[in-house]
From TrEMBL:
<dbReference type="Pfam" id="PF00892">
    <property type="entry name" value="EamA"/>
</dbReference>
<keyword id="KW-0472">Membrane</keyword>
<comment type="similarity">
    <text>Belongs to the EamA transporter family.</text>
</comment>
<dbReference type="GO" id="GO:0016020">
    <property type="term" value="C:membrane"/>
</dbReference>
<feature type="transmembrane region" description="Helical">
    <location>
        <begin position="115"/>
        <end position="132"/>
    </location>
</feature>
<feature type="transmembrane region" description="Helical">
    <location>
        <begin position="241"/>
        <end position="260"/>
    </location>
</feature>
<feature type="transmembrane region" description="Helical">
    <location>
        <begin position="138"/>
        <end position="158"/>
    </location>
</feature>
<feature type="transmembrane region" description="Helical">
    <location>
        <begin position="33"/>
        <end position="51"/>
    </location>
</feature>
<feature type="region of interest" description="Disordered">
    <location>
        <begin position="306"/>
        <end position="335"/>
    </location>
</feature>
<feature type="transmembrane region" description="Helical">
    <location>
        <begin position="58"/>
        <end position="80"/>
    </location>
</feature>
<feature type="transmembrane region" description="Helical">
    <location>
        <begin position="86"/>
        <end position="108"/>
    </location>
</feature>
<keyword id="KW-1133">Transmembrane helix</keyword>
<feature type="domain" description="EamA">
    <location>
        <begin position="7"/>
        <end position="129"/>
    </location>
</feature>
<dbReference type="InterPro" id="IPR050638">
    <property type="entry name" value="AA-Vitamin_Transporters"/>
</dbReference>
<feature type="transmembrane region" description="Helical">
    <location>
        <begin position="7"/>
        <end position="27"/>
    </location>
</feature>
<keyword id="KW-0812">Transmembrane</keyword>
<feature type="domain" description="EamA">
    <location>
        <begin position="142"/>
        <end position="282"/>
    </location>
</feature>
Length: 335
């Protein structure tokens, strides 16, 4: 992966890490399932009205929307609403990285020993940080957040399989999927009265902060962050890009420390440093495609060579025909 692409992946991790503070502000006012719907509704409307559909089959748009847009956030918001601390949530959600690597390997993507070691080192760093964040009152919020990581992994693979040349369009059209099921789930579980109450008090201090949080998650974290992420996933194996998500808790813990007073210990900072080392190991070196991939690349190369020959022949014929036409045009007319 080129250095510029690594820097973009790190930028996405920073944007997504700060996003947990925005989610916290949103959940302080709106119920969780309704919050997920509100996150996607504006983007879905913009996509339908103004953004052309990306050049990918519908199954990848729906798969990305269900995995990344729906499953990830319904479980994450649910977990945070039931007691998952902000900093710990930013850590546990990174279970998406090993999920993505394992699922990618099951689907035929090659995983080198160096990258496998990098994932293990990064997961060790996450374990070090998690060992210091043992204030979760129950296992349920933790399980919900892990399930959110699994949903993110499914979305990663759908984005990878889409192979789009229009990642921003894919991100926007992915947002069309979550609103309807999330509104239905919110009405069923949270009820119309709770939804109405949250709207009635939206002018309060917590309501304004919640709207600001929604704006950040929709525009910064989703359009910009997910757009860059989709672009990277379309150009590199999922196992190469996904481990960069393990940098998110570094930002998440720092943001929670600055905004909410959640102060990491020295051991937690050590764990964050181990995460960085693991990500660098995972991202370094060249990707070696599988034997099937090498055959496909060779076939593609041969096809391109044959096509170039055909194009050259066609161009030569076109020039010859044009030359003859010009000669005819310049010839004197016959009475």
């Amino acid at each position: 992966m080129p250095t510029r692409h690594r820097l973009l992946a790190i930028l996405v991790a920073v944007l997504w890490g700060a996003n947990f503070i925005a989610i916290h502000a949103t959940l302080e006012h709106f119920p969780p399932f309704f919050s997920v719907a509100l996150r996607w509704i504006p983007l879905a409307l913009v996509a339908i009205l103004f953004v052309p559909r990306p050049d990918v089959p519908w199954r990848w748009i729906v798969g990305y929307g269900l995995g990344f847009g729906t499953l990830q956030f319904v479980f994450l918001y649910w977990g945070m609403a039931t007691g998952m601390p902000v900093g710990l949530a930013s850590l546990v959600l990174q279970s998406s990285a090993p999920f993505t690597v394992v699922l990618g390997a099951l689907l035929g993507e090659h995983l080198s020993g160096r990258r496998g070691l990098g994932v293990l080192v990064a997961m060790l760093g996450l374990a070090i940080v998690g060992s210091q964040r043992g204030d979760v009152s129950a296992a349920w919020p933790f399980v919900l957040t892990v399930l959110g990581g699994l949903g993110w992994a499914f979305g990663n693979l759908a984005a990878r399989r889409a192979q789009t040349t229009q990642p921003l369009r894919l991100t926007m059209w992915m947002s069309v999927v979550p609103p309807v099921p999330m509104l239905a789930l919110s009405l069923l579980v949270e009820g119309p009265s709770r939804i109405a109450d949250s709207w009635a008090t939206v002018g309060t201090g917590t309501g304004v902060l919640a709207l600001a949080g929604l704006a950040y998650t929709a525009l910064i974290a989703t359009v910009i962050g997910s757009g860059i992420w989709s672009w990277l996933m379309a150009r590199h194996p999922a196992g190469t890009v996904a481990p960069f998500s393990m940098l998110v808790p570094v930002t998440g813990l720092t943001a929670a420390w600055l905004a909410l007073g959640e102060r990491p210990t020295l051991v937690e900072w050590l764990g964050c440093a181990v995460v960085v080392v693991g990500v660098l190991l995972t991202a370094s070196g060249r990707h070696t495609p599988s034997s099937a991939g090498r055959v496909a690349m060779a076939t593609t190369s041969a096809d391109v060579t044959d096509q170039e020959r055909v194009n050259a022949s066609a161009t030569s014929s076109s020039r010859s025909l044009a030359s003859r036409s010009a000669m005819v045009a310049r010839a004197p007319s016959v009475p």
